[in-house]
Amino acid sequence: MKEAFELVNQMQREAVIDRYAVGGAVGATLYLEPAATLDIDIFVKLSGDAGSLLISLSPIYDYLKQHGGRAEGEHMVIGGWPMQFLPVSTGLEEEGLHEAIETDIEGVPVWVMRAEHLAAIALQTGRSKDHARILQFLEQDAVDRARLERILKAHGLGLKWEKFKARFLNE
Amino acid sequence: MSKESRKKLASLSFTEKVKLLEKLRQRSLVLAEARKKLKEKTAAENWGRRSETQDRNLDR
Q: Least crowded by CB within 10 Å, which of A93, A122, A158, B22?
């Protein structure tokens, strides 16, 4: 995975992408115990995509192919890890990207979304595995609940959160 | 997994957690490969059995 992030960082330095932040199960791993996952979700903002309606990932795919990446369906495989690049498409994802925190894998810098944004995006996505992840965040006190609720409210997810609490937390 | 072990795992550094993720992924891939081979083997055996039955029926 280290090799994959070395290349992603290089892609950022060469201005193919503006910013990136790891989401999904790998992102959640920063805050929780590791859980088996087959791919890495990376939220990206492409360089110069501000205001454009149609966002193409081809600059990323072309760059990675030139640097040893291999396309496999919707993923690019780098260093043995399938990576899925997701252009930020909502205000919540955009905020998550901007407030991402820096960590590292063996000294290689990696930007990861904050736990509260990961939980909020999981609620927005709403699959069973996303609900399970939110419960993990809550059970392990890995999120600041007040901060999470502020984010949910700000991004119109208040009602969804109330339903989630009623269904899973008996609140 | 106990709450204590989960807490211990959660407190590891990202580097250490990523190493575990890599091991978990490797194990998933090995299991998926083994399942695929088993499926192929079972399908081949079933096909062999079907052919034998068909041969016997033709002999009758």
A: A158
